[in-house]
User: What shape does this take?
Amino acid sequence: MSDTTGTPGTTGRPGRVRRALVAVLGTLALTAVAATAASTSANATAPPPPSGWTEVFTDDFNGAAGTGVNTANWQYATGTSYPGGPANWGTGEIERMTNSTDNVALDGSGNLRITPRRDAAGNWTSGRIETNRTDFQPPAGGTLRVESRIQMPNVTGTAARGYWPAFWMLGTPFRGNYWNWPSVGELDILENVQGLNNVWSTMHCGTSPGGPCNETTGIGGSTPCPGSTCQSGFHTYRMEWDRSTAVEEIRFYVDGLNYHTVRANQVDATTWANATNHGFFIILNVAMGGGFVDAFGGGPDANTVPGHPMVVDYVQVLSSGGGTTPPPTGNRNAYSPIQAESRDTQSGTVTETTTDSGGGQNIAALANGDWAHYRGVDFGSTAARQFVARVASGAGGGVSGLVEVRLDSRGNAPVGSFAVGNTGGWQSWRTVPANIGAVTGVHDVYLTFTSGQPADFVNVNWFNFAR
Assistant: This one.
Protein backbone atom coordinates (compact mmCIF):
# COMPACT_ATOMS: atom_id res chain seq x y z
CA MET A 1 0.00 0.00 0.00
CA SER A 2 1.81 3.06 -1.15
CA ASP A 3 0.96 6.56 -2.15
CA THR A 4 2.33 9.64 -3.83
CA THR A 5 4.56 10.58 -0.92
CA GLY A 6 6.98 7.88 0.08
CA THR A 7 7.89 4.40 1.18
CA PRO A 8 5.60 1.68 2.52
CA GLY A 9 6.75 -0.90 5.01
CA THR A 10 6.49 -4.37 6.43
CA THR A 11 7.30 -6.04 9.68
CA GLY A 12 10.53 -7.77 10.54
CA ARG A 13 12.93 -8.29 13.38
CA PRO A 14 15.15 -5.46 14.54
CA GLY A 15 18.87 -5.86 14.12
CA ARG A 16 21.41 -5.30 11.39
CA VAL A 17 20.14 -3.78 8.18
CA ARG A 18 19.15 -6.68 5.94
CA ARG A 19 17.73 -7.70 2.63
CA ALA A 20 18.13 -7.68 -1.08
CA LEU A 21 16.77 -5.93 -4.08
CA VAL A 22 13.74 -6.72 -6.15
CA ALA A 23 11.16 -4.81 -8.09
CA VAL A 24 7.76 -5.36 -9.52
CA LEU A 25 6.83 -4.20 -12.93
CA GLY A 26 4.47 -2.72 -14.99
CA THR A 27 1.97 -1.09 -17.18
CA LEU A 28 -1.66 -1.25 -17.34
CA ALA A 29 -4.34 -2.85 -19.41
CA LEU A 30 -7.88 -2.04 -18.33
CA THR A 31 -10.74 -4.20 -19.49
CA ALA A 32 -14.35 -3.50 -18.60
CA VAL A 33 -16.64 -6.48 -18.86
CA ALA A 34 -19.79 -7.61 -17.12
CA ALA A 35 -19.46 -9.38 -13.79
CA THR A 36 -21.81 -10.94 -11.33
CA ALA A 37 -22.88 -8.90 -8.37
CA ALA A 38 -21.26 -9.70 -5.05
CA SER A 39 -23.20 -11.25 -2.25
CA THR A 40 -23.86 -9.14 0.81
CA SER A 41 -23.71 -12.25 3.01
CA ALA A 42 -21.21 -11.82 5.82
CA ASN A 43 -20.64 -15.48 6.59
CA ALA A 44 -19.12 -17.60 3.84
CA THR A 45 -16.18 -19.96 3.94
CA ALA A 46 -13.26 -20.00 1.55
CA PRO A 47 -14.28 -21.92 -1.56
CA PRO A 48 -12.64 -25.27 -2.27
CA PRO A 49 -9.80 -25.05 -4.80
CA PRO A 50 -11.01 -25.39 -8.39
CA SER A 51 -9.82 -28.37 -10.39
CA GLY A 52 -6.12 -28.04 -11.11
CA TRP A 53 -5.43 -25.74 -8.16
CA THR A 54 -3.74 -26.59 -4.85
CA GLU A 55 -4.33 -24.76 -1.60
CA VAL A 56 -1.20 -23.06 -0.29
CA PHE A 57 -2.70 -20.99 2.56
CA THR A 58 -6.18 -20.25 3.90
CA ASP A 59 -7.55 -18.40 6.90
CA ASP A 60 -11.34 -18.37 7.32
CA PHE A 61 -11.14 -16.21 10.46
CA ASN A 62 -13.18 -18.63 12.49
CA GLY A 63 -13.09 -18.08 16.23
CA ALA A 64 -14.86 -16.58 19.18
CA ALA A 65 -16.12 -13.02 18.90
CA GLY A 66 -13.72 -10.48 20.32
CA THR A 67 -10.59 -12.63 19.94
CA GLY A 68 -7.51 -11.74 17.96
CA VAL A 69 -6.16 -13.33 14.80
CA ASN A 70 -4.39 -16.67 14.68
CA THR A 71 -0.76 -15.76 15.34
CA ALA A 72 0.39 -18.99 13.71
CA ASN A 73 -0.71 -17.31 10.46
CA TRP A 74 -0.41 -13.59 11.17
CA GLN A 75 1.72 -11.03 12.95
CA TYR A 76 0.64 -7.58 14.05
CA ALA A 77 2.43 -4.47 12.81
CA THR A 78 2.07 -1.89 15.56
CA GLY A 79 2.93 1.72 16.21
CA THR A 80 3.47 4.36 13.55
CA SER A 81 6.43 2.80 11.75
CA TYR A 82 8.67 -0.25 11.59
CA PRO A 83 11.77 -0.20 13.82
CA GLY A 84 14.18 2.14 12.09
CA GLY A 85 11.83 2.52 9.12
CA PRO A 86 10.20 5.62 7.65
CA ALA A 87 7.75 7.52 9.84
CA ASN A 88 4.01 7.09 9.38
CA TRP A 89 4.61 3.77 7.59
CA GLY A 90 6.19 5.74 4.76
CA THR A 91 2.80 6.84 3.42
CA GLY A 92 1.91 9.85 5.57
CA GLU A 93 -0.99 8.06 7.31
CA ILE A 94 -1.68 9.34 10.81
CA GLU A 95 -3.10 6.46 12.84
CA ARG A 96 -1.27 4.31 15.40
CA MET A 97 -1.57 0.60 14.62
CA THR A 98 -2.34 -1.68 17.57
CA ASN A 99 -2.85 -5.34 18.38
CA SER A 100 -5.89 -4.49 20.50
CA THR A 101 -9.11 -6.33 19.78
CA ASP A 102 -10.71 -2.88 19.68
CA ASN A 103 -8.97 -2.55 16.32
CA VAL A 104 -8.38 -6.12 15.11
CA ALA A 105 -10.81 -8.85 16.12
CA LEU A 106 -12.82 -11.81 14.92
CA ASP A 107 -16.59 -11.28 14.99
CA GLY A 108 -17.62 -14.85 15.83
CA SER A 109 -19.33 -15.29 12.46
CA GLY A 110 -16.26 -16.25 10.45
CA ASN A 111 -15.01 -12.74 9.71
CA LEU A 112 -12.14 -10.48 10.67
CA ARG A 113 -12.88 -6.83 11.43
CA ILE A 114 -10.20 -4.14 11.23
CA THR A 115 -11.74 -1.06 12.79
CA PRO A 116 -10.33 2.49 12.97
CA ARG A 117 -11.07 4.25 16.27
CA ARG A 118 -10.71 7.87 17.40
CA ASP A 119 -10.29 8.81 21.06
CA ALA A 120 -11.59 11.90 22.84
CA ALA A 121 -8.35 13.76 22.06
CA GLY A 122 -8.78 13.10 18.34
CA ASN A 123 -6.07 10.44 18.06
CA TRP A 124 -6.69 7.59 15.64
CA THR A 125 -5.87 3.91 16.10
CA SER A 126 -6.36 1.05 13.65
CA GLY A 127 -4.97 -2.37 12.71
CA ARG A 128 -2.47 -3.91 10.34
CA ILE A 129 -1.73 -7.64 10.11
CA GLU A 130 0.75 -9.46 7.89
CA THR A 131 1.28 -13.13 7.13
CA ASN A 132 4.16 -14.80 8.89
CA ARG A 133 4.83 -16.63 5.66
CA THR A 134 6.93 -14.77 3.12
CA ASP A 135 7.16 -17.38 0.37
CA PHE A 136 4.10 -16.65 -1.75
CA GLN A 137 5.12 -16.79 -5.42
CA PRO A 138 4.13 -18.89 -8.43
CA PRO A 139 5.84 -22.17 -9.19
CA ALA A 140 7.99 -22.14 -12.29
CA GLY A 141 5.63 -22.45 -15.24
CA GLY A 142 2.59 -22.09 -12.99
CA THR A 143 0.24 -19.55 -11.43
CA LEU A 144 -0.29 -18.11 -7.95
CA ARG A 145 -3.75 -16.90 -6.95
CA VAL A 146 -4.19 -14.65 -3.89
CA GLU A 147 -7.80 -13.89 -3.02
CA SER A 148 -9.96 -12.38 -0.30
CA ARG A 149 -13.66 -11.70 0.12
CA ILE A 150 -14.01 -8.28 1.70
CA GLN A 151 -16.55 -5.63 2.53
CA MET A 152 -14.88 -2.25 2.63
CA PRO A 153 -15.75 0.07 5.53
CA ASN A 154 -19.45 0.86 5.03
CA VAL A 155 -19.14 4.61 5.20
CA THR A 156 -19.35 7.20 2.41
CA GLY A 157 -19.33 10.92 1.82
CA THR A 158 -17.76 13.32 4.29
CA ALA A 159 -18.04 10.68 7.04
CA ALA A 160 -15.53 8.55 5.07
CA ARG A 161 -12.86 11.23 4.72
CA GLY A 162 -9.48 9.70 5.47
CA TYR A 163 -10.41 6.01 5.27
CA TRP A 164 -7.86 3.92 3.34
CA PRO A 165 -8.50 0.13 3.49
CA ALA A 166 -6.15 -2.23 1.66
CA PHE A 167 -5.38 -5.87 0.84
CA TRP A 168 -1.87 -6.07 -0.58
CA MET A 169 1.51 -7.78 -0.75
CA LEU A 170 5.15 -6.77 -0.33
CA GLY A 171 8.35 -8.46 -1.50
CA THR A 172 10.03 -10.49 1.20
CA PRO A 173 13.37 -8.63 1.04
CA PHE A 174 11.64 -5.59 2.54
CA ARG A 175 10.91 -7.39 5.81
CA GLY A 176 13.52 -6.12 8.24
CA ASN A 177 15.05 -3.55 5.88
CA TYR A 178 12.29 -0.92 5.43
CA TRP A 179 14.29 1.30 3.08
CA ASN A 180 14.47 -0.68 -0.18
CA TRP A 181 11.02 0.21 -1.52
CA PRO A 182 10.01 0.30 -4.33
CA SER A 183 12.69 -2.02 -5.70
CA VAL A 184 11.41 -4.90 -3.55
CA GLY A 185 8.07 -4.91 -5.35
CA GLU A 186 4.55 -4.26 -4.12
CA LEU A 187 1.27 -5.74 -5.37
CA ASP A 188 -1.83 -3.84 -4.26
CA ILE A 189 -4.79 -6.15 -4.82
CA LEU A 190 -7.36 -3.82 -3.25
CA GLU A 191 -7.10 -0.20 -2.22
CA ASN A 192 -9.91 2.25 -1.62
CA VAL A 193 -10.12 5.78 -0.28
CA GLN A 194 -12.79 8.18 0.93
CA GLY A 195 -15.61 5.63 0.72
CA LEU A 196 -15.66 5.86 -3.08
CA ASN A 197 -17.27 3.04 -5.02
CA ASN A 198 -14.02 2.07 -6.68
CA VAL A 199 -11.26 -0.51 -6.30
CA TRP A 200 -7.68 0.30 -7.25
CA SER A 201 -4.92 -2.21 -7.96
CA THR A 202 -1.33 -1.10 -8.37
CA MET A 203 2.13 -2.51 -8.84
CA HIS A 204 5.20 -0.70 -7.55
CA CYS A 205 8.81 -1.31 -8.55
CA GLY A 206 12.08 0.16 -9.71
CA THR A 207 13.27 3.48 -8.32
CA SER A 208 11.55 6.48 -6.79
CA PRO A 209 10.67 9.06 -7.87
CA GLY A 210 9.92 8.19 -11.47
CA GLY A 211 11.76 5.17 -12.79
CA PRO A 212 10.29 2.38 -14.91
CA CYS A 213 7.17 2.12 -12.77
CA ASN A 214 6.22 5.81 -12.50
CA GLU A 215 6.82 6.04 -8.78
CA THR A 216 5.56 7.01 -6.37
CA THR A 217 2.24 6.53 -8.16
CA GLY A 218 3.07 3.09 -9.55
CA ILE A 219 1.33 1.29 -12.40
CA GLY A 220 -2.33 0.94 -11.59
CA GLY A 221 -5.84 0.36 -12.75
CA SER A 222 -9.26 0.81 -11.18
CA THR A 223 -12.93 0.00 -11.64
CA PRO A 224 -16.20 0.47 -9.76
CA CYS A 225 -17.33 -2.56 -7.79
CA PRO A 226 -19.85 -4.53 -9.87
CA GLY A 227 -23.38 -4.93 -8.53
CA SER A 228 -23.49 -3.68 -4.96
CA THR A 229 -21.07 -0.89 -4.05
CA CYS A 230 -17.70 -1.67 -2.52
CA GLN A 231 -19.00 -0.38 0.80
CA SER A 232 -22.47 -1.95 0.93
CA GLY A 233 -21.56 -5.52 0.04
CA PHE A 234 -18.87 -8.17 -0.01
CA HIS A 235 -16.78 -8.57 -3.15
CA THR A 236 -14.02 -11.00 -4.04
CA TYR A 237 -10.67 -9.37 -4.82
CA ARG A 238 -8.03 -11.51 -6.53
CA MET A 239 -4.56 -11.36 -7.99
CA GLU A 240 -3.22 -14.04 -10.35
CA TRP A 241 0.51 -14.07 -11.00
CA ASP A 242 0.96 -16.25 -14.08
CA ARG A 243 4.26 -17.78 -15.17
CA SER A 244 2.61 -20.18 -17.63
CA THR A 245 2.03 -17.57 -20.34
CA ALA A 246 4.54 -16.74 -23.08
CA VAL A 247 5.01 -13.37 -21.36
CA GLU A 248 4.73 -13.55 -17.58
CA GLU A 249 1.85 -11.43 -16.29
CA ILE A 250 0.05 -10.37 -13.13
CA ARG A 251 -3.71 -9.92 -13.34
CA PHE A 252 -6.13 -8.21 -10.96
CA TYR A 253 -9.82 -9.06 -10.55
CA VAL A 254 -12.95 -8.05 -8.68
CA ASP A 255 -15.75 -10.65 -8.68
CA GLY A 256 -14.08 -12.39 -11.61
CA LEU A 257 -13.68 -9.19 -13.66
CA ASN A 258 -10.09 -8.81 -14.90
CA TYR A 259 -9.72 -5.03 -14.92
CA HIS A 260 -5.92 -4.58 -14.75
CA THR A 261 -2.97 -6.61 -16.07
CA VAL A 262 0.77 -6.03 -15.91
CA ARG A 263 3.16 -7.95 -18.17
CA ALA A 264 6.87 -8.68 -17.96
CA ASN A 265 7.65 -7.02 -21.29
CA GLN A 266 6.32 -3.68 -20.07
CA VAL A 267 9.50 -3.00 -18.08
CA ASP A 268 13.15 -3.87 -18.60
CA ALA A 269 14.23 -7.43 -17.86
CA THR A 270 16.31 -6.47 -14.83
CA THR A 271 13.44 -4.62 -13.18
CA TRP A 272 11.14 -7.58 -13.75
CA ALA A 273 13.69 -10.12 -12.51
CA ASN A 274 14.47 -8.09 -9.40
CA ALA A 275 10.77 -7.74 -8.73
CA THR A 276 9.77 -11.35 -9.01
CA ASN A 277 12.73 -13.50 -7.99
CA HIS A 278 11.51 -13.92 -4.42
CA GLY A 279 8.46 -14.55 -2.29
CA PHE A 280 5.88 -12.07 -1.06
CA PHE A 281 3.84 -11.71 2.12
CA ILE A 282 0.23 -10.52 2.51
CA ILE A 283 -1.02 -7.47 4.39
CA LEU A 284 -4.50 -6.37 5.53
CA ASN A 285 -4.92 -2.92 7.06
CA VAL A 286 -7.05 0.19 7.33
CA ALA A 287 -5.00 3.39 7.33
CA MET A 288 -6.31 6.84 8.12
CA GLY A 289 -4.97 9.67 5.98
CA GLY A 290 -1.88 9.61 3.81
CA GLY A 291 -0.75 10.48 0.30
CA PHE A 292 -3.37 8.44 -1.55
CA VAL A 293 -6.10 9.99 0.58
CA ASP A 294 -4.66 13.45 -0.03
CA ALA A 295 -4.98 12.91 -3.78
CA PHE A 296 -8.77 12.63 -3.26
CA GLY A 297 -9.36 15.54 -0.91
CA GLY A 298 -7.54 14.62 2.28
CA GLY A 299 -8.71 13.71 5.76
CA PRO A 300 -9.55 12.53 8.27
CA ASP A 301 -11.16 15.62 9.72
CA ALA A 302 -13.91 16.59 12.16
CA ASN A 303 -16.58 15.14 9.86
CA THR A 304 -14.98 11.69 9.70
CA VAL A 305 -16.94 9.04 11.56
CA PRO A 306 -14.78 6.38 13.26
CA GLY A 307 -15.74 2.77 13.96
CA HIS A 308 -16.49 1.45 10.46
CA PRO A 309 -14.55 -1.79 9.93
CA MET A 310 -13.13 -3.47 6.88
CA VAL A 311 -14.72 -6.93 7.14
CA VAL A 312 -12.69 -9.85 5.79
CA ASP A 313 -14.40 -13.19 5.22
CA TYR A 314 -11.31 -15.19 4.22
CA VAL A 315 -7.86 -14.99 2.69
CA GLN A 316 -6.82 -17.81 0.39
CA VAL A 317 -3.69 -18.57 -1.63
CA LEU A 318 -3.77 -21.22 -4.38
CA SER A 319 -1.17 -22.57 -6.78
CA SER A 320 -1.64 -24.16 -10.19
CA GLY A 321 0.61 -25.88 -12.68
CA GLY A 322 4.36 -26.00 -12.94
CA GLY A 323 6.55 -27.31 -10.18
CA THR A 324 8.22 -25.80 -7.18
CA THR A 325 11.39 -25.28 -9.25
CA PRO A 326 12.51 -25.86 -12.82
CA PRO A 327 14.09 -29.27 -13.40
CA PRO A 328 17.72 -29.27 -12.26
CA THR A 329 20.07 -28.82 -15.18
CA GLY A 330 23.44 -29.33 -13.51
CA ASN A 331 24.67 -25.83 -14.28
CA ARG A 332 26.67 -25.59 -11.03
CA ASN A 333 29.68 -27.73 -10.15
CA ALA A 334 29.34 -28.92 -6.55
CA TYR A 335 33.12 -29.05 -6.17
CA SER A 336 33.92 -25.49 -7.22
CA PRO A 337 33.12 -22.49 -5.02
CA ILE A 338 29.47 -21.44 -5.39
CA GLN A 339 29.15 -17.75 -4.62
CA ALA A 340 26.47 -17.31 -1.99
CA GLU A 341 25.06 -14.17 -3.64
CA SER A 342 24.29 -16.19 -6.82
CA ARG A 343 21.18 -17.66 -5.14
CA ASP A 344 18.16 -18.27 -7.38
CA THR A 345 15.50 -17.64 -4.76
CA GLN A 346 15.76 -16.64 -1.13
CA SER A 347 14.07 -15.36 1.99
CA GLY A 348 15.66 -12.94 4.42
CA THR A 349 19.03 -12.48 2.72
CA VAL A 350 20.77 -9.27 1.73
CA THR A 351 23.97 -8.85 -0.27
CA GLU A 352 26.88 -6.65 0.75
CA THR A 353 30.44 -6.04 -0.39
CA THR A 354 32.89 -8.43 1.23
CA THR A 355 36.44 -7.74 2.37
CA ASP A 356 37.24 -11.45 2.08
CA SER A 357 39.98 -12.59 -0.28
CA GLY A 358 38.85 -12.23 -3.88
CA GLY A 359 36.35 -9.48 -3.13
CA GLY A 360 32.84 -9.54 -4.53
CA GLN A 361 29.78 -9.90 -2.35
CA ASN A 362 28.46 -12.08 0.43
CA ILE A 363 24.96 -12.73 1.72
CA ALA A 364 24.50 -11.11 5.07
CA ALA A 365 22.51 -10.77 8.27
CA LEU A 366 21.23 -14.34 8.24
CA ALA A 367 19.01 -15.43 11.09
CA ASN A 368 16.55 -18.10 12.12
CA GLY A 369 14.21 -19.03 9.26
CA ASP A 370 16.23 -17.41 6.46
CA TRP A 371 17.24 -19.47 3.42
CA ALA A 372 18.95 -19.34 0.04
CA HIS A 373 18.27 -21.63 -2.93
CA TYR A 374 20.76 -22.75 -5.60
CA ARG A 375 19.39 -24.63 -8.61
CA GLY A 376 21.07 -27.46 -10.48
CA VAL A 377 24.12 -28.37 -8.37
CA ASP A 378 25.88 -31.34 -10.01
CA PHE A 379 27.50 -33.78 -7.57
CA GLY A 380 28.43 -36.33 -10.23
CA SER A 381 28.40 -40.10 -9.81
CA THR A 382 30.95 -40.31 -6.97
CA ALA A 383 29.38 -39.29 -3.67
CA ALA A 384 30.17 -36.00 -1.99
CA ARG A 385 30.61 -36.46 1.76
CA GLN A 386 31.61 -33.01 2.97
CA PHE A 387 30.19 -29.49 2.87
CA VAL A 388 32.51 -26.48 3.24
CA ALA A 389 31.40 -22.87 3.70
CA ARG A 390 33.15 -19.53 4.14
CA VAL A 391 31.37 -17.76 7.00
CA ALA A 392 31.76 -14.75 9.29
CA SER A 393 29.86 -13.59 12.36
CA GLY A 394 29.75 -10.57 14.61
CA ALA A 395 26.88 -12.01 16.66
CA GLY A 396 26.59 -11.00 20.27
CA GLY A 397 27.44 -13.22 23.20
CA GLY A 398 25.33 -16.34 23.41
CA VAL A 399 24.01 -15.95 19.85
CA SER A 400 24.76 -18.81 17.47
CA GLY A 401 23.00 -21.04 14.98
CA LEU A 402 23.21 -23.77 12.40
CA VAL A 403 24.09 -23.52 8.72
CA GLU A 404 22.22 -26.45 7.17
CA VAL A 405 22.24 -28.10 3.74
CA ARG A 406 18.96 -29.47 2.34
CA LEU A 407 18.39 -31.02 -1.05
CA ASP A 408 15.53 -30.34 -3.49
CA SER A 409 13.10 -28.90 -0.91
CA ARG A 410 13.35 -26.72 2.17
CA GLY A 411 10.98 -29.22 3.77
CA ASN A 412 13.46 -32.09 3.50
CA ALA A 413 15.68 -33.02 6.41
CA PRO A 414 19.20 -31.56 6.36
CA VAL A 415 21.89 -33.81 4.90
CA GLY A 416 24.43 -31.99 7.06
CA SER A 417 25.04 -28.86 9.12
CA PHE A 418 27.54 -27.01 11.28
CA ALA A 419 27.19 -24.58 14.17
CA VAL A 420 28.66 -21.11 14.06
CA GLY A 421 28.88 -18.21 16.50
CA ASN A 422 30.96 -15.06 16.69
CA THR A 423 34.11 -15.26 14.53
CA GLY A 424 35.38 -11.84 15.54
CA GLY A 425 33.29 -9.68 13.23
CA TRP A 426 30.88 -9.66 10.31
CA GLN A 427 33.83 -9.61 7.89
CA SER A 428 36.12 -11.91 9.89
CA TRP A 429 35.99 -14.94 7.62
CA ARG A 430 36.51 -18.57 8.52
CA THR A 431 36.26 -21.73 6.42
CA VAL A 432 34.15 -24.33 8.23
CA PRO A 433 33.71 -27.96 7.09
CA ALA A 434 30.90 -30.35 7.92
CA ASN A 435 30.26 -33.98 7.13
CA ILE A 436 27.17 -34.75 5.04
CA GLY A 437 25.35 -37.87 3.95
CA ALA A 438 26.53 -39.26 0.62
CA VAL A 439 25.14 -37.20 -2.29
CA THR A 440 25.31 -37.97 -6.02
CA GLY A 441 23.49 -36.65 -9.08
CA VAL A 442 22.00 -33.20 -9.73
CA HIS A 443 20.08 -31.46 -6.95
CA ASP A 444 18.75 -28.11 -5.94
CA VAL A 445 20.61 -27.04 -2.80
CA TYR A 446 19.04 -25.02 -0.03
CA LEU A 447 21.12 -23.33 2.65
CA THR A 448 18.87 -22.88 5.65
CA PHE A 449 19.69 -21.00 8.83
CA THR A 450 18.35 -22.11 12.21
CA SER A 451 18.85 -20.50 15.61
CA GLY A 452 17.23 -20.45 18.99
CA GLN A 453 17.55 -16.65 19.05
CA PRO A 454 15.94 -14.12 16.69
CA ALA A 455 19.19 -12.19 16.15
CA ASP A 456 21.27 -12.36 12.97
CA PHE A 457 24.10 -14.86 13.50
CA VAL A 458 26.07 -15.41 10.28
CA ASN A 459 27.20 -14.14 6.85
CA VAL A 460 28.15 -16.51 4.01
CA ASN A 461 30.56 -15.69 1.19
CA TRP A 462 30.79 -19.01 -0.69
CA PHE A 463 30.39 -22.75 -0.27
CA ASN A 464 31.28 -25.97 -2.05
CA PHE A 465 31.29 -29.73 -1.50
CA ALA A 466 34.08 -32.32 -1.31
CA ARG A 467 34.41 -36.07 -1.72
Residues 5 and 291 are 5 Å apart (CA to CA). Helices lie at 269-276, 291-294. The longest strand covers residues 425-439. Residues 269-276 form the longest helix (8 residues).
